[in-house]
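Project standup — Tuesday

K.O.: blocked on the structure for the chain from last sprint. Re-posting the sequence here as requested.
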Amino acid sequence: MGETRKDKLQLIIRRFFLIITDIILINGSVILSLVMRFNVDFSAIEPQYIDSFKDTWIPFTIITLIIFWCFRMYHSLWQYASIAELYKIVEACIVAEGVHICLTAVTGEMLPRACYFMTGVFLVVAMCASRFMYRMLRTVIQEYRHTS
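H.V.: unblocked you, prediction finished:
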C-alpha cells in the first residue's frame, strides 16, 4: 500500500516538530546541567561557562541532530515504543555527549566536568520523555477519533 501525498506531508510535519523539540531539549539539557552544577543559582554560573555554551551550542546542536538521524531516531517516530527504541536513544545520547566533550576540548571552551555527565543524563531523560509523550499523545488522539 503506497503512501499518499497527505501521509508524506504528515510525516514531514511530525519530523519537523520532533526536531524542533529536540533542539530545545538538547540545549535545555546543557543549560540545566550548568544551573544544577552551580546549585540552581544563575548568578553563580561563571561567565566563561556561559561564553562556552554560547560558542558551542550551534555546532553541538547540529552534530547531535545528525547523530540522532544516524541512529534513526526520526524514522520510526515511536509508532511502537519499545526497549529497542530506548537503547537507540541511550546509545545516541552517549555518542552525542562524547562528541560534546570533544567539541569543547578542541575549541578550548570546556564546561565543568560534572556538566558533561549531567547533560548526558538529562539528554537521555528528555529524549525518552519526549518520545513517550509523543506516543501517548498519538494514542489519545487515535482513540478520540475512533470514539467520535
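K.O.: great, moving the ticket to review. Residues 5-147 form one domain. The CA atoms of residues 90 and 124 lie 6 Å apart.
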